[in-house]
Amino acid sequence: xxxxxxxxxxxxxxxxxxxxxxxxxxxxxxxxxxxxxxxxxxxxxxxxxxxxxxxxxxxxxxxxxxxxxxxxxxxxxxxxxxxxxxxxxxxxxxxxxxxxxxxxxxxxxxxxxxxxxxxxxxxxxxxxxxxxxxxxxxxxxxxxxxxxxxxxxxxxxxxxxxxxxxxxxxxxxxxxxxxxxxxxxxxxxxxxxxxxxxxxxxxxxxxxxxxxxxxxxxxxxxxxxxxxxxxxxxxxxxxxxxxxxxxxxxxxxxxxxxxxxxxxxxxxxxxxxxxxxxxxxxxxxxxxxxxxxxxxxxxxxxxxxxxxxxxxxxxxxxxxxxxxxxxxxxxxxxxxxxxxxxxxxxxxxxxxxxxxxxxxxxxxxxxxxxxxxxxxxxxxxxxxxxxxxxxxxxxxxxxxxxxxxxxxxx
Length: 410
Hints:
By secondary structure, the protein is mainly α. It has helices at residues 17-47, 50-58, 61-78, 80-104, 110-132, 134-137, 143-193, 210-223, 227-256, 259-284, 290-308, 314-342, 348-362, 366-377, 379-399, 401-404. Helix 1 (17-47) crosses helix 7 (143-193).
């Protein structure tokens, strides 16, 4: 891969053609992902029982978690752009193959389960590479803006992807939806090929083996004054947040009698708040005292999470959800920017892999626990405990001097 230097750091990310090409590729890939997940769930429900469909939908989780750390090593050894391009090519080919198979025959659940496993395996290298790529396409002073732009792409893809996938299913069934997902993922490849990336500094060390690289990456995180505590803060924040959002909102809407429509409004409030946080970072570029701001946002967000379990009316719940989205969206984007600016560029894929594993490996545990605890103790206590766990994440930011004083260059 021939690499060239990125434009000067003074070029703002939202005006940098190089960053915008990357953003277009990322948005297209994420949009394809959203269409794929809808197509997969529809095809699985049509081909089997609800329990079997659930197994198909969760088939990607195990290979993704098991292989994530190795994926970070691959991203650092081969280069993040090359890995992202290869990942999108494999995902595109797999989705189109299943689309053709479903169009020609009715094979049952096995190709859907296999496709989910392929996606989980590819995600294990795709996610670390995606996290490592922004630092190679722009200057450190623009990484907060890039995180804001990335958040906007994620929110946009989630809003547009579901109806777009539904339209594909309506027009041609699951094969058409899978074909649409493959086409959207394929669109990212030529855009990524046009993205210019920086070489690592001369003399960057690489281990003799992948295992040595993995150990070096874990050692880099463990010994770093900021990265180690940051991983703990991310784990606590996600652990206290995911359960109430994914399971708790459903139970809350049901217990309050708001129904599916009410839950939709609450999710819309959350999405609006998170989108506003991303827009703020994309426009402003950075915030002074990023570590302190992140800790305060985590702490305030934990209060909003706890309040969500006690609000009596739908309008108040929507307003609270908007506040939760704003605060957690801001803290999440700043955490991502701090990871990218604090980590040595040679280790960034592995650092991203550790952060992804911490989030993906621990936070799903909160969902069944939240559901069981709600049945035993009620919504209020569960939301209060979740808020306390989220608050501990903010407390880590505020209590660790190196983390509290961490800055985003700019």
